[in-house]
Structure formats: structure tokens, C-alpha cells
Write a structure and sequence with these properties.
By secondary structure, the protein is an alpha/beta fold. The chain has 13 helices and 13 strands. The structure holds adenosine-5'-diphosphate and magnesium ion. It comes from Georgenia satyanarayanai.
């Protein structure tokens, strides 16, 4: 391919809201056969809203809201916003710690508060009563993302938050298929929620990679590469950066322009508007560009 033609191709792409780090990237884009889509913030809006609260409502909301107010995770923002809407100002948190892919912890009004996945709470020595486990499972079956709220060593409530699938995601998935690219869904979220989202956009359950911890996302991409696939990954979060870079080694990393700087820096291509249809478009543009040249 001539450098001039590649430049024309990247110019065309940029008019479509696709920013390519270097014209040579068009070459690897052409060979992609698998596209791993991060769920939250990529396939979905990533703007979650608080839907349900179980346990002693005001207390659960006040303590969980105070800790989540210090986190930037979409779940955290939904919880903090929902708590403030009901209770006004939230108390202060000290010793806030974010545990990627697991939850958050901190001290509020003298209580050590943890909010996150039930398995992580158990690992941390928290007692999770059967009623809480049941409430959590019930919420997840409806397609919500549910987190457990614990303080002073006992789980005491469940918060369910909901995210909406972007209006353009289903079309993006079907266009990928038309291009001969296999779309897969990757998430740290639970399987029930992940499959509900996958169903909505037309990805079969066997192509859903759920409950993958942030540090394992890279391995999932590497495993697919080991199977001989040329993998592109689309993501938005800090948690996706390593996997995006890994995908870029043999295939392609694509970041949502609406996502974090870390994801954008780790990627070869930025989809400026966050419309997932730009992912199949970038493949179509690079194929068209290279066809003209060859
Ligand atoms: P995704 O891969 O969908 O972007 P993450 O890896 O960020 O999801 O998070 C995976 C899971 O870890 C969440 O579904 C939730 O159970 C838990 N989690 C992560 N961050 C938080 C938080 N701030 N508050 C509560 N739970 C959290
Ligand atoms: Mg994400």
C-alpha cells in the first residue's frame, strides 16, 4: 500500500469519527476476524441508575452512597446519585479504597463499609445471610447489576442498578457479522446480566465472556489469539487498557472516545462519539482503502 493512499484512508475514517493513530494500522484492521466488546460503557451507555434497594433503606443508601461517592465506577455514580436524591448530603468517608472488578471499601460514621460482589465480601470475611444472597440473585435474574452492602462484618442490603443498551449497539453487532467478524461480549459483570445484554444485541450465550476480572481480560484476548484468531477489542475503561494493548499486538485495540484517557492511549483507534457502529465502519473503511490500492 502506498503511504498516500493510506493517508487518504485515514482521512476518510476521521471524517466518520474514527481517529487512527497511524496509517499503517489500516493493514491490521483488514485481517480482524473476532471483535471482543466490553459491555459497560461500550455496548451499554455506562450510565447506570439506581433501581432497587433491599435492607434498611435509608441506612443502606447513606453508608453505601458515602463510600461510592468517592469512586468513579458507573455503579458507584448510580448509587451516589440515587442516595443523594433521597437523602441530600452524604456523610464523609475516610480510608476509601477501590478494588478493581470487586467493589469499594471505606469508613463512614465509624462503620467499616464494603460494597461489591458477594464472593469478594465473603473472601474479606464478611458474613452474608441467606436472605441477602437471595435478594442479590433475584435482582441479577432481572438483568440488573446487583451489589451487596456490608458494614461491621455483616452484609445488610442489596443495591440493584440498571444500565441501558445503546440504541446503535444491535446494528453494530449485525454489521460486524455481515463483515465476517465474530462479535463477543466481555465483562466483569455477572453471567445473568451479561447474557441479558447479549440477547438484546444479538450475541449468543456461548460468545459471552462474563465474570472476568480486570487483570484477566488481557488473558482472555491472548487465549483467543492463541486459537489463531485475529482479535480486535473495543473498550472504554481503565480496566480495559491492558487487554486493548494486547489486542493491538496482533490485531487492533479500539477505544470509545467517551471513555477514559488510559483506554484511548492503549488503543490504535478511537471511536470519537462512542457509537459502536463506528467499529464495523472502521473495518469497512480499511478494507475499501486497501482494495483500492491493491
Ligand atoms: P465491566 O467489565 O462490566 O466494566 P468491572 O470489571 O468494572 O465491570 O466490575 C465488575 C464487578 O465488580 C461489578 O459488576 C461489581 O459487582 C463489582 N464492582 C466494581 N466496582 C464497583 C463499585 N465501585 N461498587 C460496587 N461494586 C463494584
Ligand atoms: Mg467498561
Amino acid at each position: 500500500a502506498t503511504p498516500t493512499a493510506l493517508l487518504v484512508g485515514s482521512g476518510r475514517a476521521s471524517q466518520l469519527g474514527i481517529v487512527i493513530k497511524g496509517p499503517e494500522i489500516l493493514e491490521s484492521t483488514r485481517r480482524i476476524d473476532t471483535m471482543v466488546l466490553d459491555k459497560t460503557g461500550t455496548v451499554t451507555e455506562g450510565r447506570m441508575e439506581l433501581a432497587d434497594v433491599t435492607g434498611s433503606r435509608a441506612e443502606v443508601l447513606r453508608l453505601a452512597g458515602a463510600v461510592e461517592a468517592a469512586s468513579e465506577h458507573p455503579i458507584a455514580q448510580a448509587v451516589a446519585t440515587g442516595a443523594r436524591a433521597e437523602l441530600g448530603d452524604l456523610p464523609e468517608v475516610t480510608g476509601f479504597t477501590g478494588h478493581a472488578g470487586r467493589g469499594v471499601s471505606g469508613t463512614v460514621e465509624g462503620h467499616v463499609v464494603l460494597v461489591g460482589r458477594p464472593a469478594w465480601l465473603t473472601e474479606r470475611g464478611v458474613t452474608v445471610p441467606d436472605g441477602v444472597t437471595r435478594d442479590h440473585a433475584d435482582a441479577e435474574r432481572t438483568g440488573a447489576t446487583a451489589v451487596v452492602v456490608a458494614w461491621d462484618g455483616t452484609a445488610r442490603g442489596v443495591l440493584a442498578v440498571r444500565d441501558t443498551v445503546k440504541a446503535t449497539s444491535a446494528e453494530a453487532v449485525s454489521r460486524l457479522r455481515e463483515l465476517g467478524v465474530r462479535p463477543m461480549l466481555l465483562t466483569g459483570d455477572n453471567r445473568a446480566t451479561a447474557e441479558a445484554v447479549a440477547r438484546e444485541v444479538g450475541i449468543p450465550a456461548e460468545d459471552v465472556l462474563a465474570e472476568v476480572l480486570p487483570e484477566d481480560k488481557l488473558d482472555v484476548v491472548a487465549r483467543l489469539q492463541g486459537e489463531g484468531r485475529v482479535v480486535a477489542m473495543v473498550g472504554d475503561g481503565v480496566n480495559d487498557a491492558a487487554a486493548l494493548a494486547q489486542a493491538g499486538q496482533q490485531g487492533l485495540g479500539l477505544a470509545m472516545g467517551t471513555g477514559t484517557d488510559v483506554a484511548i492511549e492503549a488503543s490504535d483507534i478511537t471511536l470519537v462519539t462512542g457509537d459502536l457502529r463506528a467499529a464495523p465502519t472502521s473495518i469497512a473503511v480499511s478494507r475499501a482503502t486497501l482494495r483500492v490500492i491493491k
